[in-house]
Each structure stands twice: as structure tokens, then as C-alpha cells.
Design brief:
Two copies of one chain form a homodimer. By secondary structure, chain A is an alpha+beta fold. Chain A is built from nine helices and 18 strands. In chain A, helix 1 runs antiparallel to helix 2 and helix 7 packs parallel to helix 8. Chains A, B: Keywords: Acetylation, Phosphoprotein, Polyamine biosynthesis, Transferase.
Chain lengths: 360, 360
């Protein structure tokens, strides 16, 4: 079952009282057999609830400062055309009653609450966006995270980890950006991918015939899901852990990095595609920032002097988080410089910042 | 004034009755001095409203089939931290009461209703998206349409015509797509732009030194707004109606096209950047489709045999509208072929279809 929640709001240039609007609406509610309860708001405008058949509920508020709000809730198997008519009748009547006093009439797209497929996945700065997801293809709770793959008619299949939109099949621009936006030549190079369980970076890298790519992904279940449902992204790279020019280690990247540092193993590129909120088998670091700095420090240590470190940052709207990240870059063991780029990743519905970092 | 509307929803694997949940919540409501009214739903679950000080309202519903919904409304000048605490307390209590029965807990980002700057501009297929708009820079009602220019921290300034997102300063990908995605050479060519009042296409075209561009835009007020607030898009092209290699006619394009057909004037490219819903001084055609076909027919007539006609189509999600458009292409006086491309325009928050049309 799902609850459909409609809204209809009138913004007014001057406040109106309930006496001039509510009586004109009552006949519409009564026609629909809605039972009225008027509530005492202690001077904060008129507030009435109307309860009808089939679980219908309407909340009508004439606020004291130039705003009228109507909420209508019904079940998804209700007679939707009838409820549209009810809303249309209310809108028409209020337009007639309020005329030139109206500055805006707003009916939001219906909110669907409790639906099988959850379509609301907010942006990094907490704005509401509704995706077109129509199916859950894969859902697993691994030892590390909740993994979902949805189908989107426009973006293709899309990976969501712990509620964060990770990557859709439409999102080659993400993979291109985190590989340096086409300005790098990976042929014959040694590359380390941290995370990257969707296989997108790996699939693009192997096309360029690198000498060797090592990908360190902690979560086998992410790769299992992507191998099945994100093949437009990963191709056949996740079908085996050992390819011609790549190797996938299903491990926490921190001990692997520590081992490489100890062995003196170096890479031409390190591509950090870890989730924004760290996942690790390591003892908890003091904070997320400490953990990010640990990863950065170790990565820079395994980077050849001319090497480059690429990573995704965050949504351009969360300026504070971006600043804090850039602050960390000034605190590394080895001094670094960085550049950043704003990129439009189709399924993200917000612009995204990508970083390039290199040794000074 | 604006109303903040919070939601908190619990999806359950099996239905619960109110007796097992509601009593555990009442102390939380009473602490906040909220006055309870229980409504008769005629067998459709438990429904209670709670009215508090400062115009606060809570609606609690324990639906009969595995869903609990909570709505909380308050004014934007209310003590938001206190209301967050109320929601947190309700969520915590319900998590404790319902435990393993819970399949999803969802708190949507707060809906802001009646705010000065309207941030909700739905997609073509009617999905709810909240933009980051923080300011209205320009608002005019011209003879043809309502014109707004908002400021968006991430997309730059953005033109909205009659409630449709038209173009943001971030949207060079739109302009590039409607100019043929970089595959055309406009140097020395004659180009006709229909609409295009934001100046984006004109500004990109003149960089390529065409022989002559004629732009026919009906609405001076759109150009006035864009000249002031969309300069990253239009550059200085809208500062004058006559440039070195361009001319802007502030006219309805239909009579202009008719005149060109009569005179036998031809163009290498026609770029149709008219709004999706037609605006014209012509007598109303039978339907939108008739009007679109009229424009297409006239445009194809002024196109050189090797010429190309570019236009934006619609959101990829509105498949029916796209099919109907393509159907029109089979009904033109002069037979045409077409190709289409899906493009990610940053501020659209949905993928968009662009068409290239040419004479068979």
C-alpha cells in the first residue's frame, strides 16, 4: 500500500480571514462526504481537518499571514480522478474568491509515501528530488553496507550504497572525470584503484592497455550486484578477479596500502573511488577526516614522483565539506598541490567536484 | 511567511494496530503540549491530529496495512531544533516499538510551502525536484508569458518561462546540442534562429564567424532580462539588435517565415529554439501539433537542400510526447529524415532529446 499526498497552496499579497474563504469551500467538502473538525489554534489562523471514506483526509489551513495550505491524503487504489476533481474544484473556487490577492498558486507533484520502490533520494545539500526508479533489481546487506540497484528508465540501472546514489549506467562522465577527463594516457601505466566496485573505472582503464591495474574493493556483494545489473558500466571486467592486465583484491585498502608502502611498490596513478563515508575493517579513526587523511597519506606514498591521484569530492553545493577536504590536503606528510573541476554526472541531479592531486 | 512540512514514515512487513504503538508516543506529544483529536476513519486505521503552540500541527496515522505516517507542520520562524528533537524522539520510539517489523524508515527533506523563492519545478514527467534557487533576479509578465530569472548557486542564473525551466548559465551543453553537438561548421553560413531569446545560440554562433544569422524572437522582455542577468550565456549579443553578422527581429516567427518562403530566401541552418508550448500572434491553430507542423513546414521550405534543422524535443521520460512529435515529421509537405540524441543539460535534472532534421 502507498499513501498519495497532494498539496495545494495559495500565497497571497495580503492575509485573509477564514470567514471570507472557508464557507465557500464547505459545499465542496460536503459533496465528497468529508466530515469536518475545526481545531483551536490559539490565534494561529484557521485549521480544519476533513475525514472521508476510504481513508481520505484533507487538512485546510488559512494561515494568519497570507498563505492558505491544503493537504489531501488518500490511498493509491482510491479513485484518483475523483480526487483530482476535488482539488480542481478547490483551486477554482479559491481562485474566484481570492482573485487579485493571489501571488502564487502551487500544486506540487503528488508525494507517494510507503511505496515499494523508494524514489526519493535527496541531494548532498538535503534537497528533495524524486527519481524515476520503477524497480529494485538487487538488494543486499553486506557486512559493510546496504546495497541496492534500481532500474531507472532514463539513467539505466543505478547503484545506491547506504542510501547514497553511487553510479548509474548513464554516468560515463563520472568515470571520465575521475580518470582525469581524457587528459591522461594510461597505456603501459601502473594504476591503483581504491574501491571502484561498480567496475566502471576498471572497464575504461583496460581499454587503454595499461601495464597493470590493481583494484582493491572491500565488498564482494557490490561487485556481485554490478556484475549482474551494471554490465553497461563494468563490461566483463568483474567476471574474473584476474584479467590480462588487472587484478582485483577483495580487501580493505588500508592494509594493502600499508603493505605497498613497506614494499616500496609504486604506481603512476591512484584513483580513489571509495564511498564518501568510509568503510573499513581498521579500528575506527578519530574521525572521518582522520580516515580520509590516512588514505591520502598512504596513497601519496605509493605514487611515483610524477604520478597523479584522482578522486571525487562532493556536491558543489556542500561548500563547507569541500573546504574541509581541501584543508586536509594541507596537512599531509608529503606536500601536495591540487586542482578541481565541476562535472555534471547525469544521475546525480547536482553538479559534482572532482580533484586531481600531485606531489609538489 | 513559509510553512515547513516534515514527514516521517515507517513501512512495515506486517500491519500493526494503534494499541501497540500510539500509547508509547503520547507522552512525547504531551511533553510538547500538543492537543490530541482522534478521528473516526470508518475502519481505515488510526488517525489523530495534534495541535500545539505557534501553529504547530502533527498528523499521526497508523494505516491498516503496514504503514505509519507522521506529518509535522510549523512556521519557519519556529524553534526548528525543538521540532527536530520531536521528530527524533518519535523516530527513536517507533524504532524501539516496531523493531524487526520495519522495512523502511523515511524522512523526506523538509517541504517549504509558501516561501518567497519557489524552489519546486517539476520534471516533464511530473516528478518533484527541489532546486537550490535563493533569489528572484527578474520577474516580468510580458504580453506572451511570465518571465522569471532565478539565481542558483550551482547553475548560475536561470531563465524560467511560464514555469518551464528554459536555460541556466551552466547549460552550454544545451546550446552545443541544439547547434549539432560540435559536428557543424558555421563559418560563412546563413542561419535562422527561431526564438532563442536567451541569446545562448546567437553568442556561440557569432564566435564561428557565420555569413549572417537572423534571430526571430517575439518577446523583448525575455531579451531584456537575459541581457541583464544571463550574460554568461548571451555575452554582449543582446546589447544591440544589429551586429556585424547578425540581426535580431523582435517579431512572431510565423509571418517572418511566410515572407521568407515568398521571397525564396534560403538558409543553411534553421535552429528552432521556441518554447515547448507555442507562443504566437497568429490565430490559434487547431492544436499544438498543428502549430508545430506549421513551423516545421515553413522552416523546411527555407532550408537549402543540404541544410539542417535543429531543435530540442522533450524530456526522455515523456515517451508519448516524443512519439507524437516524430509522427508529425512524417506528415510534412516535404519528406524529411531525422536523427536524435540524448543529452544531459545540467539544470534540467532529466535527460533531454534533441533532433536533427533534413530533407530526404
Amino acid at each position: 500500500m502507498a499513501l498519495r499526498h497532494y498539496t495545494l497552496d495559495f500565497s497571497l499579497s495580503t492575509a485573509v480571514d477564514a470567514a471570507s474563504t472557508v464557507p465557500g469551500l464547505l459545499s465542496i467538502f460536503h459533496e465528497q462526504e468529508l466530515t469536518e473538525t475545526v481545531h483551536d489554534t490559539d490565534g494561529h489562523g484557521y485549521l480544519a481537518t476533513f475525514v472521508g471514506k476510504n481513508g481520505r483526509l484533507v487538512v485546510l489551513r488559512v494561515h494568519s499571514r497570507g498563505l492558505i495550505t491544503i493537504d489531501l491524503q488518500c490511498y493509491d487504489e482510491d479513485n484518483i480522478a475523483q480526487l483530482d476533481n476535488l482539488l480542481n474544484a478547490l483551486e477554482e473556487k479559491l481562485r474566484a474568491l481570492l482573485k487579485d490577492n493571489i501571488t502564487r498558486v502551487k500544486r506540487l507533484p503528488v508525494l507517494t509515501r510507503g511505496a515499494n520502490v523508494d524514489r526519493y533520494w535527496p541531494t548532498t545539500d538535503g534537497r528533495l528530488v524524486e527519481y524515476d526508479f520503477d524497480q529494485v533489481l538487487y538488494e543486499e546487506d553486506s557486512a559493510y553496507q546496504n546495497i541496492k540497484i534500481f532500474h531507472s528508465p532514463q539513467f539505466g540501472n543505478i547503484l545506491v550504497l547506504n542510501g547514497d546514489i553511487n553510479l548509474a549506467e548513464s554516468d560515463l562522465p563520472y568515470t571520465q572525470a575521475i580518470m582525469g577527463s581524457g587528459k591522461e594516457n594510461y597505456t603501459g601505466k601502473e594504476v591503483l584503484i581504491l574501491g571502484g566496485g561498480d567496475g566502471g573505472i576498471l572497464a575504461e582503464l583496460v581499454k587503454q592497455k595499461p601495464k597493470m591495474v590493481v583494484m582493491v574493493e572491500i565488498d564482494q556483494k557490490v561487485m556481485d550486484g554490478c556484475r549482474m545489473y551494471m554490465r553497461k558500466t563494468c563490461g566483463d571486467t568483474l567476471d574474473t578477479l584476474e584479467g590480462d592486465c588487472y587484478q582485483i583484491l577483495v580487501e580493505d585498502c588500508v592494509p594493502v596500502l600499508r603493505k605497498y608502502v613497506q614494499e616500496g611498490r609504486m604506481f603512476d596513478y591512484v584513483i580513489n573511488d571509495l564511498t564518501a563515508v568510509p568503510i573499513s575493517t581498521e579500528p575506527e579513526e578519530e574521525s572521518t577526516w582522520e580516515f580520509l587523511r590516512l588514505i591520502l597519506d598512504l596513497s601519496i606514498k605509493v605514487l611515483r614522483p610524477t604520478g597523479k591521484y584522482f578522486t571525487q569530492g562532493n556536491g558543489v553545493c556542500v561548500k563547507e565539506a569541500l573546504s574541509l577536504y581541501e584543508e586536509q590536503l594541507g596537512k599531509l606528510c608529503c606536500p601536495v598541490d591540487f586542482s578541481k573541476e565541476e562535472v555534471c554526472v547525469p544521475s546525480y541531479l547536482e553538479l559534482w567536484v572532482f580533484y586531481t592531486i600531485w606531489k609538489k
